[in-house]
Amino acid sequence: MHFAAYAYVGESVEQPLLYYGNNFTGTAAMLQTVVDYHCIPIVFSSSCATYGLPERVPIAEDHPQRPINPYGHSKLFVEQMLADLNVAYGLPWIALRYFNAAGADPDGEIGEAHDPETHLIPLVLAAARAGTPVAIFGDDYDTRDGSCVRDYIHVSDIADAHVQALEYLLSGGNSCALNLANAHGYSVKEVVAVAETVCGRTIRSKIAARRPGDPPVLIGDASRARALLGWKPTRSNLETQIADAWRWMKSRELVGFRA
Known about the structure:
Blueprint: H1 9-14, H2 16-37, E1 42-47, H3 70-89, E2 93-98, E3 100-102, H4 120-130, E4 134-137, E5 149-154, H5 155-170, E6 176-180, E7 185-187, H6 188-199, E8 205-208, H7 223-229, H8 238-250
Parallel strand pairs: 1-2, 2-6, 3-5, 4-8
Antiparallel strand pairs: 5-7
């Protein structure tokens, strides 16, 4: 299972060679070793960023892949490399295209703490904990409340999919790419509202300018993963994802947060 990669979209635009060198060239070196010694099945951590700006939602695996940043390109390049290695050497592979990974380990042992943090749910929870406002980037999109809509999938459900993908390959399943998504979108304002209920706190927000390249709606179609792997998300309702992340956050004294 190959997870190693840089994963900041903005940083990839500023430092594309860093992303191509690590995410693509580093993966090529690893895969060279795999084909030199033994073509074991590869489960690759890919991304919905390979699709770019959606032509239609929900996004299925046959949607055109037109990344709009070096991060997305680096993931797509690896997918293509895996397909080529399958033809040349018989390397079995599955690329799992995550949508918005969220939540935390339900037992509270592992959670999300990036530096810098860019993901919405931990930023909203940090605002709830610190009493500071959270930024909403644009409130004039063509969505139900004007804010962007995204598809959030619990990290535990993503972990289950990786195990099932490996079992599928080991049993002789065909190489392919699969979406991992909740198949339901929530707006930024809805995430803030649900977080207020889960945390029992008022969360202030401030409207900021749109970020370049942010599509109004990103929702994934995960029916193929359900059919091929028997995958069924069990913790991906938004309340559970936020509650798990909040429980983990409260149990840690993270830099910059206060009770």
